[in-house]
Amino acid sequence: MRRKPIPSAASHGSASDALVFFGASGDLAHKKIFPALYAMVKRGELTVPVVGVSFSGWSLDQLKGRMADGIEKFGGGIDDKRAFSRLSSLLRYVDGDYGDEGTFDLLKTALNGATRPTHYLAIPPDLFTTVIRGLAAVGLTDDARITIEKPFGHDLASARRLNRVAHSFFPESAIMRIDHFLGKEAIENIVYFRFANSFLEPVWNRAHVASIQITLAEAFGVQGRGGFYETTGCLRDVIQNHLLQIVALLAMEPPSAMRSDAIRNEKAKVLQAIRPLKSDQLIRGQFNGYRSEPGVAKDSDVETYCALRLQVDSWRWAGVPFYLRSGKCLAETAAEVLVRFKAPPQRLFADFANAGERSNYLRFRLQPGSAIAMGARVKRVGKELVGHQRELYLQDDHPGEEPPYERLLADALAGDATQFAREDAVEAAWAAVDPVLRDHQPVLPYRPGSWGPAAARDLIAADGGWHNPVLSQSGAEPYSN
């Protein structure tokens, strides 16, 4: 197929006049996309046609039934019949093989003259290139946007190949690489809290920060998706995208303005400054029982847990270790960031001999809920000048918060790329982990309900140990090995 000229990026600042989503009969559509579309219609944010595409042998009525079931089970129920009726009237369906050009001819007919569609690929990664080329073959990439689900590539080389294919038909401004984690209110609050509060900037650097650790823990397992996990693993599924994006938000310099390109420029600089990982900086684990999951090899070496130490070689962060960990079947389902500050230069009080590494810290609770806490030492009652660590705790829940897919789909339709990954950032994140995707130690077993392999504790022992999120905890010392 002859490569077509890429349209001017100027047209991609305007709102889309249709949403096409591939994978309409899939699990993601059922659980996340249909509830998000329903909520968008209720708020008046979605008024354009929605075309579902899938190869399932379904009719439009069957798709509408699937949509209603997803909203009832995963979207809080259909509490506004008029909104559901409006969404149903917007919905269209194309059933066909993604490898058949006739499917894309049918899609073009279903779009009924829409000229600025957003195409959303909620499909397995091995179909991304097929669909992009199919859209281009019938002229559906002109003035359009493409929104691509993670994982964007399987390693650095495959990410570069996928970028080349996408750039053959779309300008970078029209490519939205979606990461639902970035749509969370608590993630956006990291940037706001950092740059809206003047007290933080003087200490947010290598002179005052001892270490930063990020935990994304899940108490559940692979939930029947063993076949998928066998091709992915924790390092690709969580670390390379979710957690490295949080590193970028924590470590970025102030953007010149709160504009999409300015913010994404600073995030990319951080990811480009990460020193490529070596095998001795990585601990890989696998929960006991994983190999009995359907679709999992009996001798699988795929990790369900990762802990690693990385360095950001920038002026601000040189020498400050960043510790990242994530895993399944852990003790809690939670995500937190702990920024530990260095101890005062002179230890004036006798109790500091017993304080160990429990110095001041800043803690961001990202999920469940949202909170910011600061750990400080205060004097105990009595004549002696001894104290203990207490927390100043700010509960920051957002009852009206938009779930990530609602926010990100609305942004994609509007052409706001702020919360989507850019080409240079994606490739820099892959470059950081690429050396250890194949060059690594075997997985270490760990007990479900624990905090992972014991060896992960040694990785961070010199910096005070892991902070294990305790969901019922407030106002107490958070450190626990």
* CATH level-two architecture of the largest domain: 2-Layer Sandwich
Q: Helical element count?
A: 13
Helix content: 25-40%
Task: Based on Cα principal axes, name the global outline.
Answer: globular
CATH class of the largest domain: Alpha Beta
- How would you sum up the major sheet? 9 strands, mixed
Q: Give the terminus-to-terminus CA distance.
A: 57 Å
Radius of gyration: 24 Å
Name the CATH homologous superfamily of the largest domain. Answer: Dihydrodipicolinate Reductase, domain 2
Q: Tell me, rounded to a whole number, the average pLDDT.
A: 89
Strand order in the sheet with the most strands: 14-13-12-11-7-10-9-8-15
Secondary-structure class? alpha/beta
Estimate what percentage of residues fall within beta strands: 15-25%
